[in-house]
Design a protein that fits this description.
Mean pLDDT: 81
Structural class: mainly alpha
Order of helices and strands: HHHHHHHHHHHHHHH
Length: 321
Amino acid sequence: MASATSSRPARSASGSRRAAFGALVLANVLWAGSYTAGKVALADLPPIELNAVRFTLAALLLAPVLIRYRKQIPRDRRMLFILLQLSLLGFILNKALEYIGLSLSTASDVALLIATESIFTGLLSWIFLRERVTRTGVAALAVGLFGVYLIVERGLVPNLGEGNNTRVIGDVLVVLSLLLEAGYTVRGKTTLTTLPPLLFTALTITGSLFFWLPAGAAAVASNGLPHVTLGGWLSAFYLAAITTVLGYWLWFHALRVTDASAAAPTLFIQPLLGAALAIAILHDELTLATVIGAICIVASLLLVMRGSRREPLTVLDESVP
């Protein structure tokens, strides 16, 4: 009788872990679609207007989080200033560069490049957090950056022929956005120890509206109301509700019952499936250099996962598309 009773919690825990892993996989599948959805939305909405719509919708959908955790919202000026800095890094400068870059480049390039954020996170952690530099980390950085170069240039020799400059500029802007998002990760490390992760996300997204609402209004006043098709609205809603709100909820809910290190491999879904969707739906070009670059980035992530002893930080914040 005792044996049967004790087996029930074990089966329950096993089922919870399987459900959590399924949630992690689903979150990354949803995030993988953000690059194709972003490209579709950008056909109707310029980057500033798109981000204004996306984060306004996301903030409205995350309002219940702010209400639920209202007693834990910081009141002191120092913490509010830190949250404002993080909004600037993670959801203003980062997203401005990312979506301007996406408008100039291809969804497949951006999906593959997005995986390099963990590399930049490790680099900034060495510089600003004085974390231990390891040979594995240096090797991961070198391999990953080589992969980035191959994806941007699509070959060993710089390729700046006619019609290619725009895509290269877009890729470089995306890489810069990932560097800023890595700064958001590293800067937000101490904040995540004092606030629930979903509240932290809701606060920084809502804080970004102090920029996006005036910027969006100014853009509309200057250029007029854009003509947005049904596909554009659905893509913007996907970015706000599915990738930002649902994706985050699945991710953080799953991390309550599973280790972040166990969740790390699911991050590979994003660049690989994201690039596949862009190729299948948008007919993005797939070159040999792109494939080799993607392999290098995957190899660098494997090295990061093998050598890092502080995986929860990277996993929690890397996946914001």
